[in-house]
Design a protein that fits this description.
By secondary structure, the chain is mostly beta strands. 0% of the residues lie in helices and 42% in strands. The chain contains no helices and ten strands. A hairpin with a 3-residue loop joins β7 and β8. The structure holds calcium ion (2 copies).
Amino acid sequence: MLRQTGVLVSVPAGARGATPRPASAETAAITTATVQGELDDDVNFGGSYLTITNANFCDGSTVYQIGNLATLGFNDKTSSFIGYANCTMKIWENAGFTGASLGYVASSANVGPAMNDRASSVQLR
Ligand SMILES: [Ca+2]
Ligand SMILES: [Ca+2]
């Protein structure tokens, strides 16, 4: 797990991140983790994925963000994404929230040709 810009990110080897996973030895120390969102390599929420968890629920105004998806091994991969726990998400073409963007939206089953495999940073709120 890596902590960056106040967002705790985990890349589980097992189940998808649709619901918060039960406590395990790995996550026992994080008792209030909430899955805020998921980036998926394939359209329709398929393929490999990156879940974004945090202690907080989104409130629609507080922004949580990952400034460089390359540091998490998920640069230029996102083809679909979905927010959880009332989060909406915005993906950006470049690291540091610049370039083309899509969002904020609750989910996108297909980010479209303009953004496919281009997301390098992401914000949630
Ligand atoms: Ca992809
Ligand atoms: Ca990019």
